[in-house]
């Protein structure tokens, strides 16, 4: 065992905030997509589909994006588009879609149609 630091792992303090926020957003997007069943050929029959969990993750993503959009620079557009795609996918997956403005994260982003 050596006392030398592991240089293969970046120190969190060295990572720019935009990268931390973007990585968190991508993780939330990936989780939401899996919980919507989008990782399977037939999302309607995916064993991972869980709309209640998807709602929570999409809402968390919307809060993160809304709170940090001013810091994301050129990353803001693609992240917002990804969020809106997930919100639309949730609406399409729901047997009884929420009213406009009531879907996951829409209290932060406004209605998504």
Structure description:
- InterPro entries: DUF1844.
- It comes from Nocardia puris.
- There is one protein chain.
- The protein is mainly alpha-helical and 113 residues long.
- The protein has one domain.
- 52% of the residues lie in helices and 0% in strands.
- It contains four helices and no strands.
- The protein has helices at 17-35, 51-68, 76-93, 106-109.
Going by helix content, strand content and strand pairing, the class is mainly alpha
SSE sequence, one letter per element: HHHH
**Average of per-residue pLDDT values:** 93
- Computed CA radius of gyration, to the nearest angstrom: 17 Å
Shape summary: globular
Distance between the termini: 57 Å
Pfam family, one: DUF1844
Region (Disordered): 90-113
Protein name: Recombinase RecA
InterPro entries: DUF1844 (IPR014995)
């Amino acid at each position: 065992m050596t006392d030398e630091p592991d240089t293969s792992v970046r120190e969190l303090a060295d990572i720019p905030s935009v990268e931390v926020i973007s990585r968190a957003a991508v993780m939330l997007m990936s989780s939401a997509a899996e919980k919507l069943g989008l990782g399977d050929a037939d999302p309607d029959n995916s064993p991972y589909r869980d709309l209640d969990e998807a709602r929570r993750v999409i809402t968390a993503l919307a809060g993160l994006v809304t709170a940090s959009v001013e810091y994301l620079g050129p990353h803001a557009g693609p992240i917002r588009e990804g969020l809106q795609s997930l919100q639309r996918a949730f609406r399409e997956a729901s047997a009884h879609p929420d009213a406009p403005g009531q879907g996951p994260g829409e209290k932060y982003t406004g209605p998504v149609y």
